[in-house]
Task: inverse folding
C-alpha cells in the first residue's frame, strides 16, 4: 500500500497520459522507497526492468541484463552480450515488438552502479533515447539511484547526449511524522504521539527502518532490538550507508562525523578546522553531495548573508549512530534501556526535537493558523562579550504578515511549566532580539512542546502562542 507520496504519484500518473515519450529521473536517500514507488505506480506498464549490481564487473552487469531481457521478452537468449552496444541493440529490437496501445515503462534501477566509468552504458542509453524512444509516443524511460549527486551530475546536468533530455524529475523525500504514523498503523502498530516522535527522532522518516518495528514494542524495546542487538538489522547499517551512495565516501563520512558531534551546527570555517577535508573544490563537492542527498542542511542566521551559514546534520539515524551506537558496540541485554535513562539522552532529545521541529515547520505553521502565510525560517546566535551575555534563538519564523515568532522547543514527558526565572529569560530574549535586529514587526514568543504547557500567571504574561504534538500528529 502506498503511503503519502501524493505529489510524486500525481507526476508519475500524468506521464502515463502524456502524448509523447517521457524521461523520468527519480532520486532520494537510500532506503527511502524509490524502487517500491516506481514498481507500484508503473506495475501494469513495466516492459523492462533491471537493477545495477553494486561493485560488479561489466561482465556481471551484462549477464544480469541477459537474464532480465530474457525474462521480459520471453525470448531464448542464451548468449550474454559482449558489450553494452550489443545489449542495447537487443533491447531496442525487443521494444520494437511491443504494441503501442499504452505507455511502456523501461526502468533502470541503481543507475550509478551499472553506468560505471568506461563502460559506455550512459552514452548508449542516451543514444537509445535520442535515436528511438524520444521519437515514439508510448515510452517512459525511468532511471533511479540513491546517489542523488551522481544522477544530477551525470544525467540531469549532463553536457553530452543526455543534455536537457530529462522531461520530469522527482526527489523523493523521507516520510514526515504523519506519514510515518500511517505506515505503522497499516502494519497494526499504534503509538502515542510522544512514542512516535521518540522513534522518529532516532530512525527518521525512512520507510525501510520504520517497517522493522513490531506490534507490542515501545520505542525503547524496538531501538535496542534494531540498533544494538548483535542480530539487529540496523546495527551495521551506517557502515554501508555512504559506501552505497558515493564512490569515495571518506570525506563524506568525515564531514558527517564532525557535524554529528556539533549539535548546534558548524560554519564553513569550523568544518574545515574540525576535519582534514581540503578547502575549495573537495570541500564544496562533499558538502553539495550531502546536501543533495538530504543529510545536511544549510541554515542562514536571521538578517545575515549566505556566507555566514551554519550547516547541520539532519539525518536522524546518522546523528543517533554517532552519539549512542558507535561507542556502544559491546552488547549487553537491556543496554539501551540503561542508556536512555541517562541525562545525556535527555539532553540529546532536546537537540533532536529542535531538528524535528525544523523538519515539520509546515505542520507547526498550520497549528499556529499561519499555514498559508509566506515565511522565512532562520536562527540567531549572538555571542556575548564584556558588556552583554549574548543570546540564542534556535527557530525564528519571519512572516510576511508583519509578524515574527520566536520559538522555544521543549521535549518533556509532561506538560511544561513556566516558572518565574524561565519567564524572565523569555522576556529578556525577546527584548534582546528586538534591540539587536531593530525590527518593527510584532514579535510573538512561541512554545513548541510535547504535551503543551501548564497554565499559570507566567505563561499568561510571557507566552503569546503554543503548539504541542497532538495538534499536528494524528494517532
Result:
Amino acid at each position: 500500500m502506498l503511503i503519502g507520496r501524493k505529489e510524486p504519484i500525481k507526476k508519475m500518473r500524468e506521464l502515463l497520459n502524456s502524448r509523447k515519450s517521457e524521461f523520468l529521473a527519480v532520486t532520494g536517500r537510500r532506503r527511502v522507497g524509490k524502487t517500491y514507488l516506481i514498481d507500484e505506480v508503473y506495475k501494469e506498464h513495466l516492459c523492462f526492468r533491471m537493477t545495477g549490481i553494486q561493485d560488479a564487473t561489466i561482465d556481471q552487469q551484462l549477464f544480469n541484463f541477459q537474464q532480465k531481457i530474457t525474462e521480459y521478452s520471453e525470448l531464448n537468449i542464451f548468449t550474454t552480450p559482449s558489450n553494452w552496444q550489443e545489449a542495447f541493440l537487443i533491447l531496442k529490437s525487443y521494444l520494437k515488438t511491443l504494441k503501442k496501445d499504452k505507455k511502456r515503462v523501461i526502468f533502470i534501477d541503481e543507475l550509478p552502479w551499472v553506468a560505471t566509468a568506461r563502460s559506455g552504458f550512459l552514452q548508449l542509453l542516451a543514444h537509445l533515447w535520442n535515436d528511438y524512444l524520444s521519437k515514439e509516443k508510448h515510452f517512459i524511460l525511468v532511471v533511479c539511484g540513491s546517489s542523488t549527486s551522481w544522477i544530477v551530475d551525470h544525467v540531469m546536468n549532463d553536457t553530452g547526449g543526455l543534455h536537457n533530455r530529462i522531461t520530469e524529475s522527482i526527489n523523493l523525500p523521507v516520510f514526515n511524522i504523519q506519514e510515518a504514523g500511517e505506515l505503522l498503523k497499516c502494519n497494526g502498530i499504534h503509538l502515542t504521539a510522544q512514542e512516535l516522535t521518540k522513534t522518529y527522532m532516532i530512525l527518521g522518516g525512512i520507510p525501510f527502518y520504520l517497517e522493522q518495528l513490531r506490534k507490542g514494542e515501545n520505542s525503547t524495546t524496538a531501538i535496542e532490538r534494531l540498533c544494538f542487538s548483535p542480530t539487529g538489522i540496523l546495527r551495521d547499517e551506517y557502515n554501508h550507508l555512504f559506501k552505497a551512495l558515493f564512490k569515495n565516501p571518506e570525506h563524506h563520512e568525515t564531514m558527517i562525523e564532525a557535524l554529528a558531534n556539533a549539535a548546534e551546527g558548524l560554519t564553513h570555517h569550523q568544518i574545515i578546522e574540525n576535519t582534514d577535508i581540503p578547502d575549495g573544490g573537495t570541500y564544496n563537492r562533499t558538502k553539495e553531495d550531502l546536501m543533495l542527498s538530504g543529510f545536511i542542511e544549510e541554515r542562514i542566521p536571521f538578517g545575515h548573508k549566505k556566507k555566514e551559514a551554519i550547516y547541520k546534520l539532519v539525518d536522524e539515524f546518522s546523528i543517533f549512530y554517532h552519539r549512542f551506537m558507535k561507542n556502544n558496540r559491546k552488547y549487553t541485554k537491556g543496554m539501551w534501556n540503561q542508556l536512555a535513562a541517562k541525562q545525556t539522552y535527555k539532553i540529546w532529545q532536546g537537540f533532536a526535537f529542535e531538528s524535528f521541529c525544523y523538519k515539520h515547520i509546515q505542520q507547526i505553521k498550520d497549528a499556529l493558523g499561519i499555514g498559508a502565510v509566506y515565511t522565512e525560517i532562520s536562527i540567531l546566535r549572538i555571542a556575548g562579550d564584556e558588556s552583554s551575555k549574548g543570546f540564542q534563538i534556535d527557530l525564528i519564523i519571519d512572516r510576511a504578515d508583519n509578524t515574527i515568532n520566536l520559538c522555544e522547543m521543549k521535549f518533556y514527558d509532561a506538560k511544561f511549566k513556566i516558572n518565574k526565572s524561565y519567564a524572565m529569560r523569555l522576556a529578556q530574549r525577546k527584548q534582546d532580539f528586538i534591540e539587536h535586529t531593530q525590527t518593527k514587526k510584532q514579535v510573538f514568543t512561541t512554545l513548541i512542546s510535547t504535551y503543551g504547557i501548564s497554565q499559570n500567571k507566567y505563561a499568561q504574561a510571557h507566552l503569546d502562542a503554543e503548539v504541542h504534538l497532538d495538534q499536528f500528529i494524528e494517532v
Summary: The chain is about 45% helix and 15% strand. The radius of gyration is 25 Å. The first strand starts at residue 22 and ends at 28.
